[in-house]
């Protein structure tokens, strides 16, 4: 309902899609739907804990009742824990991150594929991360659970593309880097002072060839491209959006 998801809903609605934000927070989902309809778009919200199998099945039933099918699924649910080294991660924190970030994508994909296959050009866009593609020095960021969940998201994307390509369904992943306003950028460091947070931001920017962070609004057009028929021969791709961070 917020952050990346809100930006995705806005740009898809502007392109003519009926959007359905799904969030465990009903207020956030409703606010996003209201933002879409207030700007002349079509949309309505669903409250759902997408890490819960029963809740996801109920959500899928609501979508099926609304008909006639689901053209695009964007798996974007995310939980970003504090930055700490592997041996310092509590087991429950690990389990929670995997559940929200990866289990949710599997559950939603599994539940909605039958409805998607009833449409002409179904597309799944999974929001991964550059943290799922490489390690980083712990002075910058260390989130093994988050990284593992996003690496798993990439694997899920590739196998979904392989499994369902013969039926016309495409699956791709976007791997964002450092983006302002996300849970990852807010919680990557355990900041004692604003000065320490600013120092970390400068350190990260110095390691990005384009020397800055991005925004959800800059990422959204890439998601729109993968959701649309403009990318009709693109499947099984993992597209970075990181200012060149993974190039060095």
Structural features, described:
The chain contains 8 helices and 8 strands, in the order αββαββαβαβαβαααβ. 47% of the residues lie in helices and 11% in strands. α1 crosses α8 and α4 packs parallel to α5. The two termini are 33 Å apart. It is globular. It is an alpha/beta fold and 248 residues long. The protein has a single domain, classed as 3-Layer(aba) Sandwich (Rossmann fold), CATH 3.40.50. α4 links the parallel β5 and β6. The strands form 3 sheets. A 4-stranded parallel β-sheet has the order 5-6-7-8, with helices on both faces. A two-stranded parallel ribbon has the order 1-3. The chain has a two-stranded parallel ribbon with strand order 2-4.
Describe this structure in a few short sentences.
This protein has a single domain (48-239), classed as NAD(P)-binding Rossmann-like Domain (Rossmann fold, 3-Layer(aba) Sandwich), CATH 3.40.50. By secondary structure, the chain is α/β, with parallel strands linked by helices. The protein is 47% helix and 11% strand.
Layout of SSEs?
Elements: H1 3-14, E1 18-19, E2 22-23, H2 26-38, E3 42-43, E4 46-47, H3 53-66, E5 72-75, H4 91-116, E6 123-127, H5 144-164, E7 170-176, H6 183-187, H7 194-207, H8 216-227, E8 238-241
Features:
single chain, 248 residues, alpha/beta, Rossmann fold, 4-stranded parallel β-sheet, two-stranded parallel sheet, 8 helices, 11% strand, globular
